[in-house]
Design a protein that fits this description.
The chain has 177 residues and is mostly helical. It has one domain: Ferritin, core subunit, four-helix bundle (Ferritin). It is 85% helix and 0% strand. It has 5 helices and no strands. The longest helix has 56 residues, at 3-58. The protein starts with a helix and ends in a 6-residue tail after the last helix.
Length: 177
Protein backbone atom coordinates (compact mmCIF):
# COMPACT_ATOMS: atom_id res chain seq x y z
CA UNK A 1 0.00 0.00 0.00
CA UNK A 2 1.38 3.38 -0.93
CA UNK A 3 1.78 6.17 1.55
CA UNK A 4 -0.96 8.14 -0.22
CA UNK A 5 -3.43 5.19 -0.09
CA UNK A 6 -2.65 4.61 3.58
CA UNK A 7 -3.35 8.28 4.29
CA UNK A 8 -6.70 8.06 2.46
CA UNK A 9 -7.64 4.96 4.48
CA UNK A 10 -6.80 6.78 7.72
CA UNK A 11 -8.97 9.73 6.69
CA UNK A 12 -11.84 7.40 5.73
CA UNK A 13 -11.60 5.63 9.09
CA UNK A 14 -11.57 8.98 10.93
CA UNK A 15 -14.62 10.21 9.01
CA UNK A 16 -16.48 6.95 9.64
CA UNK A 17 -15.64 7.14 13.35
CA UNK A 18 -16.85 10.75 13.55
CA UNK A 19 -20.08 9.87 11.76
CA UNK A 20 -20.73 6.89 14.01
CA UNK A 21 -19.95 8.91 17.13
CA UNK A 22 -22.15 11.74 15.93
CA UNK A 23 -25.00 9.32 15.35
CA UNK A 24 -24.57 7.93 18.84
CA UNK A 25 -24.61 11.43 20.32
CA UNK A 26 -27.70 12.30 18.28
CA UNK A 27 -29.42 9.13 19.50
CA UNK A 28 -28.62 10.10 23.11
CA UNK A 29 -30.09 13.56 22.54
CA UNK A 30 -33.19 12.05 20.93
CA UNK A 31 -33.63 9.65 23.84
CA UNK A 32 -33.14 12.49 26.32
CA UNK A 33 -35.92 14.48 24.64
CA UNK A 34 -38.29 11.53 25.00
CA UNK A 35 -37.16 10.95 28.59
CA UNK A 36 -37.67 14.61 29.47
CA UNK A 37 -41.09 14.64 27.83
CA UNK A 38 -42.27 11.57 29.78
CA UNK A 39 -40.83 12.94 33.04
CA UNK A 40 -42.62 16.26 32.53
CA UNK A 41 -45.86 14.50 31.58
CA UNK A 42 -45.59 12.38 34.72
CA UNK A 43 -44.93 15.37 36.99
CA UNK A 44 -47.69 17.41 35.38
CA UNK A 45 -50.18 14.56 35.72
CA UNK A 46 -49.34 14.09 39.40
CA UNK A 47 -49.81 17.80 39.97
CA UNK A 48 -53.17 17.77 38.13
CA UNK A 49 -54.36 14.94 40.39
CA UNK A 50 -53.21 16.72 43.56
CA UNK A 51 -54.89 19.95 42.49
CA UNK A 52 -57.99 18.00 41.47
CA UNK A 53 -58.20 16.66 45.02
CA UNK A 54 -57.94 20.21 46.33
CA UNK A 55 -60.73 21.26 43.97
CA UNK A 56 -63.01 18.49 45.17
CA UNK A 57 -62.45 19.69 48.75
CA UNK A 58 -62.19 23.48 48.48
CA UNK A 59 -64.20 24.54 45.44
CA UNK A 60 -67.54 26.23 45.82
CA UNK A 61 -68.78 25.71 42.26
CA UNK A 62 -70.14 22.30 41.33
CA UNK A 63 -68.57 22.72 37.87
CA UNK A 64 -65.14 23.30 39.42
CA UNK A 65 -65.56 20.27 41.69
CA UNK A 66 -66.56 18.15 38.67
CA UNK A 67 -63.60 19.47 36.69
CA UNK A 68 -61.28 18.58 39.58
CA UNK A 69 -62.70 15.06 39.68
CA UNK A 70 -62.21 14.75 35.92
CA UNK A 71 -58.57 15.82 36.32
CA UNK A 72 -58.07 13.09 38.90
CA UNK A 73 -59.59 10.39 36.69
CA UNK A 74 -58.06 11.41 33.35
CA UNK A 75 -54.59 12.13 34.70
CA UNK A 76 -54.58 8.94 36.75
CA UNK A 77 -55.22 6.99 33.54
CA UNK A 78 -52.55 8.97 31.68
CA UNK A 79 -50.14 8.44 34.58
CA UNK A 80 -50.51 4.68 34.31
CA UNK A 81 -49.86 4.91 30.56
CA UNK A 82 -46.74 7.03 31.15
CA UNK A 83 -45.46 4.50 33.70
CA UNK A 84 -45.96 1.65 31.22
CA UNK A 85 -44.19 3.58 28.45
CA UNK A 86 -41.32 4.53 30.74
CA UNK A 87 -40.93 0.95 31.92
CA UNK A 88 -40.95 -0.32 28.33
CA UNK A 89 -38.37 2.28 27.26
CA UNK A 90 -36.20 1.86 30.38
CA UNK A 91 -36.84 5.39 31.62
CA UNK A 92 -36.88 6.32 35.31
CA UNK A 93 -39.65 8.75 36.18
CA UNK A 94 -39.51 11.26 39.03
CA UNK A 95 -41.33 10.08 42.13
CA UNK A 96 -42.35 13.51 43.37
CA UNK A 97 -44.14 16.54 42.04
CA UNK A 98 -41.89 19.30 40.70
CA UNK A 99 -41.13 22.09 43.23
CA UNK A 100 -43.02 24.69 41.19
CA UNK A 101 -46.10 22.46 41.22
CA UNK A 102 -45.77 21.98 44.99
CA UNK A 103 -45.71 25.74 45.37
CA UNK A 104 -48.85 26.08 43.24
CA UNK A 105 -50.60 23.47 45.40
CA UNK A 106 -49.53 25.27 48.59
CA UNK A 107 -50.83 28.58 47.25
CA UNK A 108 -54.16 27.08 46.21
CA UNK A 109 -54.51 25.21 49.51
CA UNK A 110 -54.67 28.57 51.27
CA UNK A 111 -57.84 29.46 49.36
CA UNK A 112 -61.43 28.25 49.43
CA UNK A 113 -64.79 29.05 47.89
CA UNK A 114 -64.96 31.52 45.01
CA UNK A 115 -61.36 32.64 45.49
CA UNK A 116 -60.21 29.05 45.10
CA UNK A 117 -62.48 28.47 42.09
CA UNK A 118 -61.09 31.45 40.21
CA UNK A 119 -57.45 30.78 41.07
CA UNK A 120 -57.72 27.06 40.32
CA UNK A 121 -59.46 27.53 36.97
CA UNK A 122 -57.02 30.29 35.99
CA UNK A 123 -54.17 27.89 36.74
CA UNK A 124 -55.88 25.08 34.81
CA UNK A 125 -56.21 27.28 31.70
CA UNK A 126 -52.58 28.34 31.92
CA UNK A 127 -51.31 24.82 32.62
CA UNK A 128 -53.37 23.12 29.92
CA UNK A 129 -52.41 25.77 27.36
CA UNK A 130 -48.77 24.93 28.08
CA UNK A 131 -49.49 21.18 27.98
CA UNK A 132 -51.31 21.35 24.66
CA UNK A 133 -48.41 23.27 23.12
CA UNK A 134 -45.88 20.75 24.46
CA UNK A 135 -47.89 17.73 23.34
CA UNK A 136 -48.41 19.20 19.87
CA UNK A 137 -44.67 19.71 19.53
CA UNK A 138 -43.87 16.29 20.95
CA UNK A 139 -46.44 14.44 18.84
CA UNK A 140 -44.47 15.64 15.81
CA UNK A 141 -40.94 15.80 17.15
CA UNK A 142 -40.22 12.83 19.39
CA UNK A 143 -38.18 9.93 18.12
CA UNK A 144 -39.49 6.96 20.06
CA UNK A 145 -42.53 5.83 18.05
CA UNK A 146 -44.54 4.63 21.07
CA UNK A 147 -43.93 7.85 23.00
CA UNK A 148 -44.80 9.93 19.94
CA UNK A 149 -47.98 7.90 19.43
CA UNK A 150 -48.97 8.33 23.09
CA UNK A 151 -48.50 12.10 22.80
CA UNK A 152 -50.72 12.12 19.69
CA UNK A 153 -53.44 10.04 21.33
CA UNK A 154 -53.36 12.08 24.56
CA UNK A 155 -53.44 15.47 22.83
CA UNK A 156 -57.21 15.51 22.09
CA UNK A 157 -57.95 14.81 25.78
CA UNK A 158 -55.75 17.75 26.81
CA UNK A 159 -57.45 19.99 24.23
CA UNK A 160 -60.80 18.97 25.68
CA UNK A 161 -59.52 19.79 29.20
CA UNK A 162 -58.38 23.21 27.97
CA UNK A 163 -61.71 23.95 26.29
CA UNK A 164 -63.62 22.95 29.41
CA UNK A 165 -61.27 24.91 31.69
CA UNK A 166 -61.70 28.04 29.55
CA UNK A 167 -65.47 27.65 29.59
CA UNK A 168 -65.62 27.30 33.38
CA UNK A 169 -63.13 30.15 33.85
CA UNK A 170 -65.28 32.37 31.63
CA UNK A 171 -68.40 31.47 33.66
CA UNK A 172 -66.52 32.44 36.81
CA UNK A 173 -65.20 35.62 35.14
CA UNK A 174 -61.68 34.42 35.86
CA UNK A 175 -58.82 36.39 34.36
CA UNK A 176 -56.83 33.87 32.33
CA UNK A 177 -54.09 36.01 30.84
Amino acid sequence: MTKRTAHRVQIAVMIATCLMTGTAVAADVDTRQDTLFLAQASESGKAEMALGLLASDRAQSAKVKEFGQRMIEDHQKAGMEVKQLALREGIDLPAAIAPVEKKNAETLSQLSGKAFDRAYMGHMVKDHTKDVTEFERSAQGLNTPLVQQWASVTLPVLKEHLKLAKSIADDLETPTK
